[in-house]
Amino acid sequence: MSGKVAAQNTYVLEVRLRTEYTDAEGAAALALLKEQGLTSLKEARMGRLYEITGALTANQAQQAGKDLLCDAVTQEFRVVPAGAAPMNGMNFWRVEVWLKPTVSDPVGATVVEAIAEAGLPKPASARCASLYLLSGRAMKAQIEKAVAKSLANPLIHRVVVTEAHP
To answer: For residues 121 and 124, what is the distance between their CA atoms, to the nearest angstrom?
Structure first.
């Protein structure tokens, strides 16, 4: 028996509603953010993020996204590339709301089991997050404050706000 340990790779898969479909969750998030004073925002689209760590290859991560995490009719998915997005003049924002590492993630546990049941290598872990793609001019600090009051609970969530591609 070999003592070789399989390489641990981490992939972040983004699943979101196709643009031709009305995003009710995004509209609700936009209304909440506007109530917090972000009246210059024009649109919000919502999605889900899945951070999967384990001995999966890039092709296997793609397969998990396509076959398990995405409704091929109404949703699209992609593996999020590592690295910072170019600055865009504060007109497009990416807001990720993750459970803190100390908070259990039952959806992540379900994703781990579903991937294994699909015949792919069982991941060591999976974490899930809500994704909000915002358009409209705003400052990062304004978005962070509004999200902490309306879309996240600072006791259990970690919020990541970055400028995004349009």
So the answer is: 9
Write down the domain spans for the chain. 9-163
* Two structure tokens written together for 97: 């709301």
Using the 8-state DSSP alphabet, how is residue 19 labeled? T
- Structure tokens, 23: 């995003």
* pLDDT tens digits, 54-100: 999 999 999 999 999 999 999 999 998 766 555 556 689 999 999 99
Q: How many C-beta atoms lie closer than 10 Å to residue 28's C-beta? A: 13
Q: Which CATH architecture has domain 9-163?
A: 2-Layer Sandwich (3.30)
pLDDT digits (tens, 9 = 90+) for 14-57: 999 999 999 999 999 999 999 999 999 999 999 999 999 999 99
Kindly report the length of the chain.
166
Alpha-carbon distances, residue 115 vs 8, 125, 165 (angstroms): 15, 11, 30
Give dist(CA 154, CA 52) in Å, integer: 23
Radius of gyration of the chain (CA): 17
pTM of the prediction? Answer: 0.90
